[in-house]
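User: Before I run my own analysis I want an independent prediction to cross-check against. Here's the chain; please return only the structure tokens and, at the end, one sentence I can use as a sanity check.
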Amino acid sequence: FLADESKLQQTRDFLKLVPADSDHAKTLKMLERTFGCYIMESEEAQTLRAEATKIEGQLEAARNVLTLGATIDGKFEEMSSVGL
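Assistant: Structure tokens:
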């Protein structure tokens, strides 16, 4: 829903129709900012998002093979995240 580019465009169209100092304009500006956070319009933002997603995938893969536990009295004991 929030990444729907047509909703961002519709919000911008509505902004042109209402007085700039109205409560409707305030609400529409908030929606525009919100949609803008989910829709990467610039090429640089899209590149950065792709890099971040790649890093997140690598972290997830490493976390999936991570053995959880703690060293207690000099001995490593495997534990769940709840046990930690």
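Sanity check: The chain has a mean pLDDT of 94.
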